[in-house]
Amino acid sequence: MYREVGATSEDEMMLLKEIREDIDLIKRYTKLLAWDAILTNLNKIASSADRKQIWRLADGTLSTEQIANQIGVTVRSVQYFVQEAESAGLIRIAKRGYPKRIEDVIPSEWKPWKPRRGEEETEVQTQKTETKLPEGIT
Asked: What are the C-alpha distances in Å from 129 to residues 81, 88, 132?
C-alpha cells in the first residue's frame, strides 16, 4: 500500500503525503457514517435556545465566560453544557476554558441567532449561524 521509506528526504515527504491523504479520506468516510449519530447527540444536548447559542459560539475563540456574557447566562450553565458535550465527544477543550466544536456544524433547522431584548447583535454572533455539512451531504 505504501512505498518503503528510502534514504532521501523527498521519498519520506511523499510517503507522509500519501499517509495524510489516506487519513483525510478515512476521516471523511467516518463523518458520513457517524453523521446521524452526531446530529442526534447534538440535538439532545443542545435542547434549549441558550444551549444552541452556546454550541454556535463554541468555536475555540471564546472562553466559557465570554460565551456566558454574550448569551446572558451564567458561566456555570455554559460549563455544564460543555461538560455534557465533551462527554458525548462533540466538544474538546484544547486551551483551558475555550470550548471548540469537534464538528463545525449548526443544523439548518435551528433558528438563527437573535440577541435578547436590549442587546445588539455582534459580528461573532452572526458568524455562527452557518451550517457546514461534510461533502456529499445536502
From this structure: 19, 22, 10
For residue range 78-122, list pLDDT tens digits in order: 999 999 999 998 999 878 889 999 888 888 787 776 665 555 544
What cell does 19 get? 499517509
Quick one: 82 exposed, middle or buried, by C-beta within 10 A (0-12, 13-18, 19+)? buried
pTM: 0.64
Looking at the DSSP bridge assignments, the partners of residue 95 are 98
Evaluate the CA torsion angle 56, 60, 64, 68 in order and state its sign.
negative
Topology given in CATH for the domain delimited by 9-127: Arc Repressor Mutant, subunit A (1.10.10)
Angle ∠(125,48,129) on CA atoms, nearest 5: 25
